[in-house]
Amino acid sequence: MGLHFLMGVKKMPEIKNYWSTDELLHCPIIGSKMSRNRFLEILRTLHFSDNKFPNINDRFWKLGSYLADILGKFQDAINAGKFLCMNESLVGFKGRLVFRQYIPNKRCRFGVKFFVLVDQKNNFILGMIPYQGKKTKFEGDKKKLGAGGAAVYTLLQNYLYKNHRVVTDSWFISPNLAQCLHENGTLLLGTAQKSRKNMPKMAGKMKKDSIQTYNTEKILVER
Known about the structure:
The protein is of the alpha/beta class. The protein has 2 domains: 2-45, no CATH class; 61-222, Nucleotidyltransferase, domain 5 (2-Layer Sandwich), CATH 3.30.420. It is 26% helix and 19% strand. It has helices spanning 2-9, 28-33, 36-45, 66-77, 142-155, 175-183; strands spanning 83-92, 101-102, 110-119, 124-130, 165-168, 187-190, 213-215, 220-222. The strands form 2 sheets. Strands 1, 2, 3, 4, 5 and 6 form a 6-stranded mixed sheet that branches. Helix 5 packs across helix 6 (175-183). It is elongated and about 65 Å long. The protein starts with a helix and ends with a strand.
């Protein structure tokens, strides 16, 4: 897995190029750790679970506990800073998959979607949730928070009551989520859609250079 991570940093046209002796492609650290044939053999047979005991409630069951284990290591590696960033990421995949997503504004457009929480100071992943459609597991009240808000609340379970500031975009943000996080010692920053439930009713067109402000005791909205 360490070699895989390194290959993500230094990208080659093909996997076999990492063992090339050509001075333009030569990557000595790869060949010194493992031979090409051994690496490809492990890659072909790598398996994380027992197919005799499938988990029908988890579409990622073939990964076994690998994803949870490595995310646990990520969380133990650093102390998260003041600002955390929440966003969605698309891992490119064009094969047959019932929960494959199409997001036109992403670079690869087709693939598996993940909700990702990142420490803004260190650019370090703190947690992620693979999107599995209706089978995606969320904490909190999904009907109240929506899928985006529930994803934020789920990934923040280990970071509540620590005065973190969570920065995200309008797909995740709602007044209900802001209220929920405030009650759990966490602040929420970002843009919001006017159509969200419990958003204040805003006036019509605004004059140039003017600002409209709406607030409650715990939420501030500026336009």
